[in-house]
Amino acid sequence: VQLQASGGGLVQAGGSLRLSCVVSGDYLFNYALGWVRQAPGKEREFVAAIRWSTGGTAYGRSVKGRFTISRDRAKNTVYLQMNSLNPEDTSVYYCAARSSWIVNWNSASEFGYWGQGTQVTVSS
User: Fold this and answer.
1) What order of strands is seen across the sheet that includes strand 77-82?
2) Per-residue pLDDT tens for 11-66?
3) Alpha carbon distance 50, 61 (integer Å)
4) Are 31 and 52 in contact (CB under 8 A)?
């Protein structure tokens, strides 16, 4: 599976950004798609996941209530709407995939496929 992310940029604290990820290369019905992020000097962090078939979602603790993941099955695209951004959200954001859904999303390492990253910078 191939993942192409876009939409990063520079935004002021309190602002919003939407990331997009176009997915190709496999039959996605059973897949989980999502986002992880990695800030300089920090471990990769799970952000959000969506079950391609049903639209069920999961979120990391630090983004719950501020970020929303969605998908457009017709466009094979996953989105991450990020609201109320703060400087701690500054990271490289990666689109990621897993060939099956899981119940407990505790780690970025649950994903098996990765796209290139897109930089998100939040200024104070």
Assistant:
1) 2-6, 17-24, 77-82, 67-72
2) 999 999 999 999 998 888 999 999 999 999 999 999 999 999 999 999 999 999 99
3) 15
4) yes
Residue 40, SS3 per DSSP? coil
The pLDDT value recorded for residue 46 is 97
What span, in angstroms and rounded, lies between the C-alpha atoms of 91 and 72?
25
Residue 106 pLDDT: 83
**Residue 78 and residue 96 in contact, taking contact as beta carbons nearer than 8 Å:** no
Residue with tokens 């500054």: 90
User: 34 to each of 12, 41, 69, 124, how far by Cα in Å?
Assistant: 24, 22, 8, 27
Q: Which two tokens stand for residue 100?
A: 């099956």
Residues 31-45 pLDDT 10s: 999 999 999 999 999
Give the type of residue at 10.
L
